[in-house]
Inverse folding.
């Protein structure tokens, strides 16, 4: 398959598939600068007006603030639970180890609607009122996996003997953690946290079931798209959302360049 | 005086050392301490939630009061099986999920193959980022983009008219759902296929060629079987994610495009019939369980 013809053929196919992946994203970003209130193509005149409108829109601001808050809380929960679990799974062999790692992966393997539906019926059942807390719990279920995978990948590549060496040299548990383990995992934690935040910030399926009357940014966007309301403002918000989800990923990719954690491997 | 001053920190350090040593000698204590919080949280919240989902699917809603009645029966499931509307929706969901999976496999393979075999290292890293960024950029936004592209005055018809073709009329159809699903989940297929292809040693291909297999034969008998675990791993994502979606049908689908997810969402949000929604939600769970068992047989978990 290494002939020149194959190389050219695969090259053209690659270019077409990459174009398929990127053209819609570029088009939707261009719509943010659309001077008209009608969403037609090609765009007739350009403006920055809608960014200003989006910035002063009270509902959009409230939704953005809620999404940031939920994202930060869910990320914090995910960092604590995901890191603890990844240490236990990577360093020790014990009964039920496979089961626990499967349990943590379950929210990613099952469709989001199952997680959402299950949490909403749990809340009804237990009489928990839907609030910011229920959104955070919902997001944390799948954010934990992201941190867990990131830290686990990092721990697998580091030799457990460095911990033993540190203890042999007289360090106690805290010193070993501070001077040996922390430098190894810190970038993986940052990367995992950024990805968890990006995932939470953009989540809509689980949120629709656990948010009640709360409006996160993706829910605000979805509502307006479905009703066809204030689409120019939505387009400006969408432009910012793309940047806010892509930038953390680029940073995370740089922090974990050689470990391929983003692919889940 | 000096003894007291020294005793403070050193006894603290002594205590820390004793704790460390105690934990070192009893690894099970460490495991328990590390796992207590995550496992408790997941067991209570996630498994508890799944359990309550299953339980509530066996309950009913009183048609007068609209309240959930805790009487046990399989009525919800028998409605699902016997009502042709729900059967149709379930089959549509599974059918489109399968079609999307095949489409993504066909689109992802050449890209993954080019990345793994032909692209120089620098290009490879660049292509990797080009696949990764759409994966992580907002999924809702990417569906919305297609809603505008496929619209009557959208970019697709503009491009078609530009080269002298008539309008495509894809907006709000099942075909639109097929395109959009294939689009949003494509990166999930590319990455595992790439990982599988990258692992095939060059010497296998040389051996195959030395033994007289031409390009196509090498592809069919060496490359394809070795990349199968990657394809299956990718298909778990594309299949499962399509199965549970309701945003795409709502935004780009038409009047006859309801998915299982839309029915579940409507029953929970609009009519408040959680038991029936829960019963319908078990359908994707069962389908995924069967799919995962088959995938495990095909060795997909080693490729994840």
């Amino acid at each position: 398959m290494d002939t020149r013809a194959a190389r050219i053929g695969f090259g053209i196919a690659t270019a077409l598939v990459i174009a398929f992946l990127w053209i819609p994203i570029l088009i939707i970003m261009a719509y943010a600068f659309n001077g008209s209130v009608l969403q037609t193509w090609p765009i007739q005149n350009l403006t920055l007006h809608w960014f200003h409108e989006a910035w002063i829109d009270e509902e959009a601001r409230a939704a953005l603030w809620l999404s940031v808050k939920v994202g930060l809380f869910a990320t914090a929960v995910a960092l604590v639970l995901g890191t603890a679990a990844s240490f236990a799974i990577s360093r020790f062999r014990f009964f039920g180890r496979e089961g626990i790692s499967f349990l943590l992966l379950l929210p990613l393997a099952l469709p989001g609607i199952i997680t959402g539906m299950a949490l909403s019926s749990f809340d009804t059942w237990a009489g928990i009122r839907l609030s910011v807390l229920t959104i955070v719990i919902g997001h944390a279920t799948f954010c934990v996996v992201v941190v867990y995978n990131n830290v686990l990948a990092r721990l697998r590549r580091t030799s457990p003997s460095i911990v033993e060496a540190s203890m042999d040299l007289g360090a106690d548990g805290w010193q070993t953690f501070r001077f040996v383990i922390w430098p190894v995992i810190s970038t993986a934690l940052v990367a995992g946290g950024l990805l968890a935040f990006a995932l939470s910030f953009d989540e809509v399926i689980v949120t629709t079931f656990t948010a009640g009357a709360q409006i996160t940014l993706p829910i605000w966007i979805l509502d307006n798209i479905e009703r066809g309301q204030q689409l120019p403002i939505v387009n400006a918000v969408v432009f910012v959302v793309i940047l806010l989800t892509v930038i953390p990923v680029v940073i995370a990719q740089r922090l974990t360049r050689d470990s391929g954690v983003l692919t889940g491997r | 005086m000096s003894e007291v001053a020294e005793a403070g920190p050193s006894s603290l350090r002594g205590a820390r050392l004793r704790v460390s040593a105690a934990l070192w000698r009893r690894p099970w204590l460490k495991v328990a301490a590390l796992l207590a919080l995550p496992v408790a949280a997941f067991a209570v919240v996630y498994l508890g939630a799944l359990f309550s989902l299953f339980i509530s699917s066996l309950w009913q809603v009183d048609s007068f009061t609209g309240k959930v009645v805790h009487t046990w029966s399989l009525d919800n499931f028998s409605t699902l099986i016997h009502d042709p509307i729900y059967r149709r929706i379930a089959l549509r969901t599974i059918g489109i999920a399968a079609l999307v999976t095949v489409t993504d496999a066909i689109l992802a393979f050449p890209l993954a193959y080019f990345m793994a075999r032909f692209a120089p290292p620098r290009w490879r890293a660049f292509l990797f980022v080009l696949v990764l960024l759409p994966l992580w950029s907002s999924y809702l936004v990417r569906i919305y983009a297609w809603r505008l592209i496929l619209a009557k005055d959208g970019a697709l018809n503009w491009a078609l008219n530009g080269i002298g073709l008539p309008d495509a009329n894809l907006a709000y159809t099942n075909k639109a759902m097929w395109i959009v699903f294939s689009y949003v989940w494509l990166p999930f297929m590319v990455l595992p296929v790439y990982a599988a292809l990258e692992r095939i040693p060059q010497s296998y291909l040389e051996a195959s060629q030395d033994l007289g297999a031409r390009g196509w034969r090498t592809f069919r008998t060496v490359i394809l079987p070795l990349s199968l675990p990657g394809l299956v791993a990718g298909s778990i994502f594309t299949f499962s994610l399509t199965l549970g979606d309701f945003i795409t049908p709502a935004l780009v689908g038409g009047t006859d495009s309801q998915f299982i997810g839309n029915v579940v969402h409507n029953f929970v949000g609009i009519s408040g019939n959680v038991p029936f929604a829960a019963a319908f939600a078990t359908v994707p769970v069962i389908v995924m369980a069967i799919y995962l068992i088959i995938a495990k047989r095909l060795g997909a978990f080693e490729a994840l």
Summary: Residues 157 and 168 of chain B are 6 Å apart (CA to CA).
